[in-house]
Design a protein that fits this description.
This protein is of the alpha+beta class and 131 residues long. The protein has four helices and three strands, in the order ααββαβα. 47% of the residues lie in helices and 15% in strands. A three-stranded mixed beta sheet has the order 1-2-3.
């Protein structure tokens, strides 16, 4: 209890000093925000550790991975949104047997191009060869 009171007092006095000095709080970005997201998320045993990948772009967290149910996907997205410092969450989480949301348009475009144009009669030139 004494530690918590000490923590609250020092935090409040630190914020007051920053406010008086006119310092703006610095938002976490990059590796620091990624570390915070991982440490806060993985304390919850309901969140699957090995099925998720996180990337951070500024203050946006990008989620990738495959989860067994839509409820799990919603739980992970909600938990990430609650982490202090996260401004936006972009999710590429998907269910088993379904392509990731960022792959659907590419798969559809590739299928349409194959149907329209067919395969080329000649292979493209090898740009890596020294000839």
């Amino acid at each position: 209890m004494a530690r918590e009171i000490h923590y609250l007092c020092t935090t409040a006095s630190g914020k007051a000093l920053h406010h008086i000095a006119g310092d703006k709080p610095v938002a976490l970005e990059g590796r620091a925000l990624l570390d915070r997201v991982e440490s806060e998320l993985f304390t919850d045993p309901a969140i699957p550790h090995g099925a998720l990948n996180f990337d951070v772009e500024g203050t946006t967290v990008v989620l990738r991975g495959q989860l067994p149910s839509q409820a799990d996907i919603d739980r992970v997205k909600g938990a990430v949104k609650k982490v202090r410092g996260v401004a936006k969450v972009r999710s590429f989480l998907h269910l088993p047997g379904m392509p990731a949301p960022n792959k659907v348009s590419a798969l559809l475009a590739g299928t349409a191009a194959t149907r329209q144009d067919g395969w080329p009669e000649e292979p493209p030139p090898d740009v890596d060869s020294e000839a």
